[in-house]
Amino acid sequence: MSAIPTSNARSGRRHVLRVSADGGLRAPPFEYLLFALALAGMATGGVAIALGLLQAPTTGMVVGDWYLLTSGFIIVAAAGSDRRAIFLSAALVAVLSVAFFLPARLLAPGIEPKAYVKGAVALAAAASVLMQFSTALRRGAPLRDNRDMAVACFAVALVVTPLVSGWGIQISALIPQTFDANALRMDEAFGLRVPAWLDEAVQGSRFVSYVVFHVYISISLAMVGYDLLFDETREWRMTKLMLVSSLLGFVAYFITPVVGTGYFRDYGQTGALRDLLAHASAGAGVLPRNAMPSLHTTWGLMLIVSATLPARRVLWQRAAAALFVVYGVLTICGALTFGDHYLIDCVVAAPLTATIMLAFEDAETRAKPGFAACFSTGAALLAGWIVMLRTGGGLLEPPVVLAMAAASLAQMAATIALMRSARAAHGWT
């Protein structure tokens, strides 16, 4: 295999195409792998629902995921070759939705306008994704080289993967043991129950609470928006980082199942850790599980790191990068408040984020001195945190936890320095 650099005349950015010795493209688009994994998870979930092992998504959940479908619409509208057809299909569904609103209200007076609008947006976005598939089939290009098909598959993967991850929460709730007691002990090492303190600060203002919550639930729009604004729509790097981490998060539900701070009603009031530990040792029953490390923190860190890496010479790009940094910070705040995460969940997200981002770096960055050490250190720290959480005992003593936390932050800083130097050397690839 060899790499042929190509340039984008508009942005000056370089893309690397993998070709074989005979000059033909050999590596299938990564979008197809994500699509296959998403469909496999969807099919497995459908069988489990038919067998009564899983609950089907409710109407509220589908409407609540309208922002995921909107993200899919942005992808096909930005990267599809027939944008006119994409916009016309979405507009047609939108017009029909408006026309049928009053008849729908007559048939079902309980329909709320806000929910109806979200449902209409979701249907319009779904229609645009289907139109992208139609365009890809009309092009008739070989599947490996059919960019329209890859874009359509990627949009579907973005919509389906979080749903499959949600089923992971249901399945893992059947695991009787959780590690909340160990997570609580790890949190106490920091001397402050940050989630409780932050929750009080956020909930104390209706405006702040509204902003943090909606940033928290719309993170997919931010990830897609980052790729769109900074001309990453050829590779959709940020969005792919989100999907890969989501798939890893699905696994985390079973390796490190925890419930989170919402399980303890007096988490922010009581000063006695022993009372909380007694509650945790009693078992979490069938309460939904939380991802540890925190996925939302992982996504927030990805936004922050990516927005601050390359030099932004244009004023609007600097302003947009600053907004993405703020978005990432608020997403982490949302994880600690609305996501019921422990502080340790967010700390462990640092080596997870660094390891995933390094895995997606190009060949030039991987060849830089220190890359292997940085990558292996991140993976080792992540494994160490998992061992600590599952084993407990003396590994949860404050000095050990604080040392691991400092090492995790240092590894994240080293990762940022490495990636920054790579950007300075050969730009964003």
Strand content: under 5%
Strands side by side in the biggest sheet: 1-2
H-E order: EEHHHHHHHHHHHHHHHHHHH
Biggest sheet character: 2 strands, antiparallel
Q: In which range does the helix fraction lie?
A: 55-70%
Number of strands: 2
Q: Distance N terminus to C terminus?
A: 18 Å
Taking all Cα atoms into account, the compactness measure Rg is 23 Å
- Mean pLDDT, nearest integer? 83
- How many helices? The count is 19
* Estimated structural class: mainly alpha
> Looking at the structure, what is the overall shape?
globular
Report the uncertain regions: 1-25
Give a summary of the structure in a few sentences:
This protein has 429 residues and is an all-alpha fold. The chain is 69% helix and 3% strand.
Sequence-ordered SSE layout with sheet pairings:
Layout: E1 2-7, E2 14-19, H1 30-50, H2 59-64, H3 66-79, H4 83-99, H5 101-107, H6 113-139, H7 147-172, H8 180-188, H9 194-203, H10 206-217, H11 219-229, H12 237-255, H13 273-281, H14 295-308, H15 315-337, H16 343-359, H17 363-366, H18 371-391, H19 398-426
Antiparallel strand pairs: 1-2
Helix pairs in contact: 1-7, 3-6, 3-7, 3-11, 4-6, 6-7, 7-12, 8-13, 10-15, 11-12, 11-14, 11-15, 12-14, 14-15, 14-16, 16-18, 16-19, 18-19
